[in-house]
Description:
- Helix 3 (about 65-70) packs across helix 14.
- This protein has helices at about 5-10, 35-50, 65-70, 110-115, 135-140, 155-170, 170-180, 205-215, 230-235, 240-250, 270-275, 290-300, 330-335, 350-370, and strands spanning about 15, 25, 55, 75-80, 100, 120-125, 145, 195-200, 220-225, 250-255, 280, 305-310, 340-345, 380.
- Mean pLDDT is about 90; it is low at about 1-35 and about 35-50.
- Helix 5 links the parallel strand 6 (about 120-125) and strand 7 (about 145).
- It starts with 5 loop residues before the first helix and ends with a strand.
- It is of the alpha/beta class.
- A six-stranded mixed sheet has the order 4-3-5-6-7-14.
Amino acid sequence: MRPQSRAACAVPARQTTVPDGKARYRRGPTDVLTQTSRWLMSIFLNKRTTRMNIAFFSSQPYEQPFLEAANRNHHHTLTFLTETLTPETVRLAAGHQAICVFVNDQLSRPVLQALAEQGIQLIALRCTGFNQVDVEAAQELRFRILRVPAYSPHSVAEHAVALLLSLNRKTYLAYQRTKDNNFTLDGLMGFDLYGRRVGVIGTGKIGAAFARIMLGFGCQVLAYDKVPSPQLQALGVPFLSLEEILEQADVISLHCPLLPETHHLIDAAALARMKPGAYLLNTSRGGLIDTPAVLEALESGHLGALGMDVYELEDDFFFADWSDKPLPDADLNALTHLPNVLVTSHQGFFTREAMEQIADTTISNLTALEQEHLPEKALVVG
């Protein structure tokens, strides 16, 4: 008897439906791959597919879609927690292989020790700054920590400009008036930004972006940074000492990181050097300014206006709704009620473009942590 042909031995094709709703035909194993080659391929794919359980602390509903979209090709399991990471909430990380934190989460020595005891040593920051990290403790405990080294610098720079324009032209006051059918102009007078001296303290990507916008307004931009920006120098921006900036600028915008040497960079002495009536903007870190000293300068009239997207003690207040209860922070309460102060709750980064970039980088960093391929620019501890 002649053996059956190869076609006669083949397993018949079967119809199946995939998520897009279209019919597909699955061929028999002899038509595509042998059982052995399929098995080897599955081993290869499983080796390349990273699947970690990751706890996201301080998670907000608006960021979850961006993170889930970024995770589609990484296949991690994401657990979104609204709680801020503290010594009291660190227990929520149990059962995860990695955690992801934001600006107000605490990575102090006690928290890091508790994480290490749970077997967690991979941490991703979904922010650029890492002043919340006890770097020495993290190194001792052999953590690997990555951050988002950069995202749309225009998001924060443009928000700083928005604060300046609104403070100067009193649009926030005009908005409230017209809602009450008050169309008078008393108390709404501003000044031309054209020709004014704008001091930029810190000329990294965000500071440089802010400086370029101010140049577009026709302002005289003055800059201070330990490492001057060649791009701004090429545009004719002079780099001066901090003291010269304070004494000459009509508007000062802070864009430097929070470090021991920049903590309370704007204190009573610095404020005394500033021109009477000067404006101060802070979209970087709250600890750059001495809040009581700034309040005193505002109340005395020496400081003309303050625009702030960050606050030194924001951890307990920002990203939360306090509208139905008294605000227990006297300084923050005073600032929000002064007519020449505009406070926003750390929303400078909050644009669609920035959120997409932050999510993509964060998820990629988590995969890099698991695979031990640490990108140097993102490395905090490793």
